[in-house]
Specification:
The chain is α+β, with helices and mostly antiparallel strands and 178 residues long. The chain folds into two domains: 2-55, no CATH class; 74-119 and 129-163, Immunoglobulin-like (Sandwich), CATH 2.60.40.790. The protein contains two helices and seven strands. Strand 1 (74-78) and strand 2 (82-88) form a beta hairpin.
């Protein structure tokens, strides 16, 4: 409740100040719309700033922080008999990728990257890549079978093809009362 209250109070103060300057309801709506766009832009800038700050510090062993993995992009396609999941994992060694399916609907993709950092090497101007580990947990759109799953990794893209569980047909049976 605290955060929402602060945001609402701030918006009311800004709107009140804008109202005393303009006086019309239409101007108030226009000012609120402008404020909304400014707040959205400010949030994007703050997100970018935090990403830059976190990437400046190397992640500790086993940490999920440090800018690695938070922005892994995933596509999920729900087809009639299967679910296809694609995840961007550039620069990963396929032997370091771990995938599990739990309870027929929860897919976990985790990976670890190890990049040797040598800050004393001649000519090194900037080094942002480093050791990192991430885990992404996805809810699949349907119950899937653990048998027949195929996984491939090519050009930094992991693709999983997961067959759906076979649904039992609902039969309509007429029962006569005797």
């Amino acid at each position: 409740m605290g955060r929402e209250w602060i945001i609402a109070s701030t918006l009311l103060l800004i709107c009140g100040a804008a109202h005393t300057q303009t006086g019309s309801v239409e101007d108030d709506y226009e000012n609120i719309d402008k404020l909304h766009h400014k707040l959205v832009r400010m949030k994007k800038e703050m997100d970018r700033l935090m990403k830059d700050v976190l990437s400046a510090y190397p992640a500790e062993e086993g940490s999920v922080l440090g800018g690695f993995g938070e922005d892994v992009r995933v596509d999920i396609v729900d087809e009639a008999k299967r679910v296809i999941v694609k995840a961007d994992l550039p620069g990963m060694d396929k032997d370091k990728i771990d995938i599990t399916l739990e309870n027929d609907r929860t897919l976990k993709i985790s990976a670890q990257r190890e990049v040797v950092k040598s800050q004393t090497a001649p000519g090194v101007v900037r080094q942002e890549r480093g050791v990192g580990r991430f885990e992404r947990v996805l809810d699949l759109p349907a119950e899937c079978s653990s048998e027949g799953i195929s996984a491939s990794y090519k050009n930094g893209v992991l693709e999983l093809v997961i067959p759906k569980k076979r649904q039992t047909k609902e039969e309509k049976v007429r029962i006569t009362v005797q």
